[in-house]
Design goal:
heterodimer; A: Rossmann fold; five-stranded parallel beta sheet; 43% helix; 15% strand; B: 487 residues; Rossmann fold; six-stranded mixed beta sheet; 21 helices
Amino acid sequence: MNKFVDRPRFSCALGGALFTLRALARAIPIIHASAGCGYNLYTTGNAGAGYLGGGYCGGTGWSSSNVVEREIVFGGTDRLSEQIRSTLELIDGDLFVVVTGCMVEMIGDDISAVLDEFAGEEVPIVAVSTPSFKGNSYDGYDMLLGGLFSDYVRQGVEKRADVVNLLGLVPGQDAFYKGNLGEIKRLLERLGLRVNTFFGEGETLENLKNSSEASLNIVLSDVYGVKAADVFEKTHGTPYISLPLPVGAAQTSQFLLEAADALRLSREAAERVVADEEARYYDYIERIADIYNDVDLQRYAVVVGDANYAPAISRFVADELGWLPRLTVVTDELDGEETRRIEKRFTGWESDAYPLVKFDTDTSSIQRYFQDAWEPSGNERYYDSFSPLFLIGSVFERDLAAKLGVPLLTVSFPVTNRIVLNQSYAGYKGGLGLASDLLSTLIAGR
Amino acid sequence: MTIDLNSTTFGKREERLGSVVGYVGTIKDLASQSRCGSLKDRGRCFSQSSSCDAGCVLGYISHIRDIAIINHAPSGCTAGASSVITNQTQLASKRGLSYNTVILGTDMNESDTIFGAAGTLRDTILETYNRYKPAAIFVTTSCVSGIIGEDVDSVIAETGEELPIPVVPIHCEGFKSKVWATGFDAADHAILSRIVAPPRKKGNFINFKNFNESARDDIVEMFRAIGVDVFMIYSNTTLEELSHISEALATISICGTLASYLGNGLEQQHGVPYIKTINPLGVAGFETWFRDIGRVIGKEAEAEAYIERERALYLPKLEEVKAKLKGLRVVLGMGSSFAFQVARVIQELGMEVAYIASWHYDSRYDDGSPPPHVQYLAEHSPRDFNISVADQQNFEILNILNQYKPDLYLARHPGTTVWAVKQGVPSIFMADEYMSFGYKRTLSFAYTILDRITNRSFEKNLSSRIKLPYTDWWYRQESASLYQEAK
């Protein structure tokens, strides 16, 4: 049988596309689906992403054709055409994107024929097929960006050596996407680059539209954004490299040097940036050395998260905090090649303190792996217990944390117990933020 | 209309209750059209995300403890399940109860949309039983299972024979009804037809249909004062308890939209009287409702004595706070019952109802009678005022707020008041259905309003710094200008 959904850590392709559009300034989705799709996905995505909110026109503000039985029987293209026309009049936007739900895909609505009716419009209108049965919200990000890269981004633009695009952080699925993109952009700018993240502070649709001048796409993920980067390369000839999301000094320094090499930037200049950033970083880390040692803040760790966060955070706690991660569960639906890429991220650590790595989407399985990660008690005279332990995961791990009586920091989707604003876990600043959040949890009673 | 419990399906609200999602007029016109049965629905050429039957069902039936719900749908339709479960777990823990209900999805994929997924559904039902041992399994349908014509009923009938627990279908395809509140009826239909048993003996209790039972302690005490017990539905109930609701003295509710199907169904099938008065929000609502309960169960004197005591306790304070609220103008956007019931409370508190936007509107309830709260408001309002049935459409609400510029906007669904706030209008999201229930909560509601309008900084600052998505053109139109002619 199919693996059935039990406490899902993502929604559907439509949900991924909608939250990606929510993050894109003045891009207006037009949902062609039943009335409930948009609102239900908003409710889940809003809370799961640390209360991202509906933004400019999201949630109950999303334009939606709200097809009913009549359209299911007779087709929904007339309704869609009417909805696009009225949306153009009512909603002030610079790009309109038709995204589709399962039901209109199944009845075979010809969306491109509808778009032909609007060929003369001044404002661009594109359509991207995003039915739930074709993928989850991570896939929806790739589908949506793939569609925009081929149908919206300017063609035939001259490349500029100092321009790069950042991909791989999925808005909404990564509750910290905006802070993370901001930090990585800041660092790449220190290398002398101009950076389009599409969703970052102050960016507009112009960043997306002109992104074809980039000489390299940097995918901050082994999984997400890779398909979109493929489309980009085929359409605009820009190659990509896939580097893992860097969290903390060690990973970020490695990231910056690899990025500099890939772009053939001066190694020496990059090393100067790294040295400066590390000095600032350790000025702060030095602060916590006192409390860390006075009350012994070393912990075992179990990390549960998506393909971006699970390896990065495991390595951070091992290589930088000196903790002992014993189990890491990657919660995505991955194919064999993607799994191998993630496994490779558990090599080359300075600490050599590797956890057992499992791939499982099922929340209820996590505790089962404990016995593989730690020898269970066999009534020995002395039993070295799996304690003190810290759990880093999503809000789904709350029951487990409560049962074990251990602290939990939520980082991976869903993050419903935190308000996330401009915090970041990526880069140097993100590493400091993560250290602060983890250790604050431990001393909250003081 | 008679409720038919022999079928697994039932009529949607448009058909059963003459429900509409598009109307513009006045309270007096709506009341008169409801009496004559002449109300016609109007579509709109622009629409925005709202809700669906399936979402309504998952959120509502999951209030029952220790059952399993299998959503026969692609993954996205089940994505909200975790937050629903978290909510229900918290409601249970407030009462010190354990809550073990699970919501699972069959995760229909592309090949399922072509070849069907009856096998997956069957396996999921059996695996769910083995893994969780629930008291019953409810299988909810989706747009996708509906379009491929999946024979869910047959799979359920087969597995139901193999398992020692009820396996019950709930038909709630998202595209089926324009009125998502049809989902309440879908849940009630499943409970009435498959869980409720014929009465074994008469009990000394009243069924009270509600959402989150936040006022439970006060309600228990109130009914104890007149010598009966109360059974709150469905929050924190078990299937065994629900099988006995046919033995109740009467069925009452906090919301006419919510209870029509179950209340009238129990009355028609098992002779349990359903109290059909206006609902117990505000003073007039509470007293009308409580007196009728007293009359139906033969406790008139006790009910009267309770009313006397409570009046003495709260009415003087209520008069005091009314003076501070006098003249405030209020716009309301809520469901078919609450919109008009809360409006009545607003008038009682000395404020002016500037406009009502009802999400949908049921022209009649399952006993054939027009909703009493609309008749009441039409008769008692100081003047006729404008209303619309606005289907939770945000663009209409913001247009209305821009036109009427009220002191306060009240709404009852998450993600709706935020838009009023973004437009600079102080708002209260009335999530708790007991906000303004009875004397005490009507008083606290008045204080909440006072608090809300005392500091308007948040919406003032926010609205002056952000841009809303609607064009100037739209704000120059009438809010109902995109309605199509009634068919």
